[in-house]
Amino acid sequence: MSDTSELSISLAYDDGTGDTDLGLPTMAFSTEGGGDPDILSLGTFSQTQAAQSANIKVDGYPSTATPEEQRLTLGSVAAGGHFHLTYKGQTTGEILYDASTDEIQDALELLSNVNLNDITVGGNPLNQAGYTSFTFLSSAGDTEMISIDATALTPSGAKTATIAEYAKGSNGYIERGTNSITDALSGITLNLHDITETGKPIKITISKNTASVTQKIQAMVTAYNALITELKAKTEYDTETKKMGILSNDMGASLMKSQSRTPFVGAAAGFIDTIDSFIQASDIGITIDGAGMMKFDTSIFNDAVNEDFNGVLDLLGATKSSNSENGVIQFYNASDKYTTAATYNVAVDINGSHQITGVRIKLSTEPESAFRDNSTWLNNLVTGISTFDDEGNPVYPENGLQFTVDLTQAADTYTATISVKQGIAGAFEDFLDNVLETDGRFDISQAILDDKTTAIEKKIENEQTRLDKVKQRLVDKYARLEKTLTLIQQQLAAVNQITSSTFSN
């Protein structure tokens, strides 16, 4: 065997008949790049190995490793036959239905990818009531699931066999499948280039880029005030021209002007004053004056940054995140697109077998008196109701909300409050998307204006047709009158001629 590449050479010898002299084998170097075959440097050969995950600790976290435990349960005790277990692609031989836990463990340790005591088998064998447990070394971390082939197993009753994760394992490290880690520290990307020496962690100094944040807020304030100024010009009365703005009767423009301030007034969604350092825009120097224009007080902002820089960043840009946990129930994830930022009341029922039997959720920040109880769960991970209406919008606010439950607790009902936070910048962006998207407020407003324009154009067209008909009637009328006058004049001329002739005679 040769180091990391695990290159091996196999030799076979056929003794045949008679005497044979076997000489020592010789090997020739094969190099790339024209290097000296006696000096193998990084430029002259390629080294490969199986991909491995990156493992790190941040300030000693995680502090301890946790062994994973998986449990095998049958619908009824085994009465005969045999079964097979599979772990990481390798399958054991036949294991008799009445094999002891030690015999089951021995069968697993015959696999080439399982070393002695890597997996400890406990609990009860399959021919006894209860469950069979598989406890892994803590160094295995969150490992793959063992699976069972019970087709040749004869049950005494119901023929079901399941293996579920009872306790998730942790190898005592933050483990990721890449060397670029973006979610260990909020807002920080860690690029890993080498391993550290045991007991000698690397110290990383992170400075606050306050100037960059201030510049971005100033840009937002400038853009917001430009928007409000334009909306005012188009919707309000102009004292100079003595006219209302061209969009004064447009509902979309009026709503945008009045509601654009909402994300910057009052507490941000999901923020709680007893937990979060800052809960509204004014806490970090962003306010709306009486004229509807945005103001930014840099002195208040700088004080807030010095007090809690991460708290400032959360209030500005939190994207459906949470710091809510009570030990038994902990926030896990939320959908940036579908979960409503708010505070939720959660109740979870756990039975004596350490399984979830019921989950109830409702908004605590809205006048909801009744819990909803049709969430779903898989082992200890609960997901809020994920149904949509005919237009593809979530029916319930907890759509995409996920939290974990500690199933080692005794049978009882456990409650918690989970706050899903959204920063003021994200809330304002959602408001603009709602206004500008297809079938949004401006789109609907534009449709109303188009309908009004079409109606006016139709009215003008009808009026023009009516006027054309009136004109034609008048033309025909005066044409007949002119014809009558001409006839009268001709008759009068004839009378005059007759009269003149009569009197002359």
Explain the layout of strands and helices.
Layout: E1 54-56, E2 69-74, E3 78-87, E4 90-91, E5 95-96, H1 101-109, E6 119-123, E7 131-136, E8 147-149, E9 153-155, E10 161-167, E11 174-176, E12 180-185, E13 188-191, H2 210-235, E14 237-238, E15 243-244, H3 251-259, E16 286-288, E17 294-296, H4 298-307, H5 309-317, E18 319-321, E19 329-333, E20 342-350, E21 356-363, E22 376-378, E23 381-383, E24 402-405, E25 412-422, H6 424-436, H7 441-504
Antiparallel strand pairs: 1-11, 2-7, 2-10, 3-4, 3-5, 3-8, 3-9, 6-7, 12-13, 14-15, 16-17, 18-25, 19-24, 20-21, 20-25, 22-23, 23-24
Helix pairs in contact: 2-3, 3-7, 4-5
Tell me about this structure:
This protein has helices at about 100-110, 210-235, 250-260, 300-305, 310-315, 425-435, 440-505; strands at about 55, 70-75, 80-85, 90, 95, 120-125, 130-135, 145-150, 155, 160-165, 175, 180-185, 190, 235-240, 245, 285-290, 295, 320, 330-335, 340-350, 355-365, 375-380, 380-385, 400-405, 410-420. The radius of gyration is 41 Å and the shape is elongated. It starts with about 55 loop residues before the first strand and ends with a helix. A hairpin with a 4-residue loop joins strand 14 and strand 15 (about 245). It has about 500 residues and is an alpha+beta fold. The strands form eight sheets. Strands 3, 4, 5, 8 and 9 form a five-stranded antiparallel β-sheet that branches. Helix 3 runs antiparallel to helix 7 (about 440-505) and helix 4 (about 300-305) crosses helix 5 (about 310-315). It is about 30% helix and about 25% strand. The protein is built from seven helices and 25 strands.
